[in-house]
Amino acid sequence: MHVRRPAPTGVHRVSSRKPRLSAGAVYVLLMALAVLFVGPFVWLLLAALKTRDEWAAVPTHILPRQAQWENFTHALTDINFPAYAVNSLFLSTMYAVLVTASSAVVGFGFARLRGSGKRGLFLVLLSTMMLPQILTLLPTYVLFSRLGLVNTYWPWVLWGVASSPYLIFLFRQFFAAIPSELEDAAIIDGCGWGRIFVRIFLPLSRPVLLTSFLLSFVWTWGDYIAPALLLDVDHTTLSVAITAWYRDPHGNAIPTVQAAAAALYVLPALLIFLFAQRYFIRSIVSSGVKG
Amino acid sequence: MARNSWSRYSNRTFYLFVSPWVLGFLLLTAVPLGYAFGVSLTNFDGSSPRWRWVGFRNYVELFGDAEAWHAMLRTIAYAAIAVPLSVAGALGLAVLLNRRLIAVGLWRTIFFLPSVVPVVAMAIMWKLVLNRDAGIANAILHVVGIKPIAWLVDPMAFYALIILTLWGLGGGMVIMLAALQGVPTELEEAAVVDGANRWRVFRHITVPMISPVIFFQVVTGVIATLQIVVQPLLLAETNSISGVGQVPQSTHLYMVQVYQEFFTSNRFGYGSAMLWVYFLVILAFTLLIQRSSRSWVHYQVDTESDR
């Protein structure tokens, strides 16, 4: 005879499962972690508002006695901050426009067009996403210096026109998901691929275009090694300028002014991110989930 | 006939569209790599025209270069610590945020924000935080009675670098979060009904379901950590490429060593040989992880979208 046994442990299990981590504990944990993640930003701002003595005081002063806003004035005037900001802005915008345009074109090619050897090429593309950029940067630098491209912005033009595997992938995923009825109708009407791309696909891809533009802008804005290698004192970007050039007459770094400069420098990147958070997250997710 | 010319048109159009990348890849990736190989067979010093071929002598020398080997081992140790910690940390944070929370968007922003901070600003911030005398880290440690720690010099600089890396794990967290949200809840609920506890559900259902994403994080993490050079340079006391000599021993990673060969010793040939050896090492690592993935990465469906 089969008697269905009531599961004696069942009730117990349900109750032991529930209080895994109480809501309160989760918030306490998140709060503690948030302090670690936000702390450096806050400390940077506090340092930017202190006098030099106050910054170096032992024991450490957490809050400035009186906010030293002139640190920001010094950050802007001790070096030619506006000129470097213009360099950064120019270089980032130019690269972002070029690389977005070229990556959209290439991404469209991989998503919608047929050609012999396409599969192989796409595999090469995916594996270049895995290629450490730093390996090619040094020999590229040597080549560029022999070609006389050092201290010009031509390298960024070339890098922009050459498109980026990462962004190509982003565009390719987007274009591949668009139903083919649209282009079929256009082909029957006698449209060439160029016009199909410009008239139909490009307008549809506005969010991806924006994502690509913002991402590549922030890359260049934040890049250190390429401008440090390729550009001299007059042409270089903000990222290089703020690292080393705030010095007192004795050659010592002035941490408070450097902190103010760093705050001014990081602000555009953070603003872009906050303004376009969902675009960033979407692009990161689409690159990470498909791999 | 008509079909033939159409396919020729399409073939041509395809190559026209992808030509920016093909040309860019050839000129800005393949040529520099090939050029580096050529240079690695010479004793070129970066400027003087009087270089000559030395064959594989640079490679032979590199094989017996204790400093380079130490730098390589240090880099591998750094990757072996930083990658698992950041992947696990990203997963842990994602699990914490993958539940009903007040202001979940705000939490996500807080943890993600550091990963978009430019490396220069990141280095400046952490130098302020970890400053031996005036930094907040030692001030907090002082409260609990710990003596000031010299974070930015040997041997602690190594750990400072790892802290800096972990601070930027928010990008990985966002990817993990998206993956977790893609796990069908029915599966987990079914396991819970069958009496599995929370941890076992996580270990045997959630993790296998998102293993492709974890795998991707490990691969990109390894590649990213192996090529780190800017962070050690900027965390060091002098921060410029010419000041590469001042990088503390414990953060003197392989790429730092390469930069030193290029810009302090002007040994472009030897440095190029180091680059090529490293290229092969990274390739080997990637293949190794790829091979190991067969045993622990579960792909639900073959997502080969073929157009």
Automatic annotation (TrEMBL), chain A:
UniProt keyword Ribonucleoprotein, yes or no: no
Record localization: Cell membrane
Keywords: Cell membrane, Membrane, Transmembrane, Transmembrane helix, Transport
PROSITE patterns for this protein: ABC_TM1
The organism's place on the tree of life at top rank: Bacteria
InterPro entries in the record: MetI-like (IPR000515), MetI-like_sf (IPR035906)
Pfam families cross-referenced by the UniProt entry: BPD_transp_1
Topology of this chain in the membrane: Multi-pass membrane protein
Segments crossing the lipid bilayer: 21-46, 89-110, 122-144, 156-175, 196-221, 257-276
Domain ABC transmembrane type-1 residues, every copy: 85-276
Biological processes, Gene Ontology terms: transmembrane transport
Any Gene Ontology CC annotation: plasma membrane
Family to which this protein belongs: Belongs to the binding-protein-dependent transport system permease family.
Protein name (database record): Carbohydrate ABC transporter membrane protein 2 (CUT1 family)
Origin species: Kribbella voronezhensis
From TrEMBL, chain B:
Alphabetized UniProt keyword annotations: Cell membrane, Membrane, Transmembrane, Transmembrane helix, Transport
Keyword Manganese: no
InterPro entries per UniProt: ABC_transporter_permease, MetI-like, MetI-like_sf
CC annotations in GO: plasma membrane
Record keyword Cell membrane present: yes
Major site of localization recorded for this protein: membrane
Biological process per Gene Ontology, one example term: transmembrane transport
Domain of life: Bacteria
Family: Belongs to the binding-protein-dependent transport system permease family.
PANTHER family: ABC TRANSPORTER PERMEASE PROTEIN, ABC TRANSPORTER PERMEASE PROTEIN YESP-RELATED
The name this protein goes by in its record: Carbohydrate ABC transporter membrane protein 1 (CUT1 family)
Species of the source: Kribbella voronezhensis
Lineage of origin: Bacteria, Bacillati, Actinomycetota, Actinomycetes, Propionibacteriales
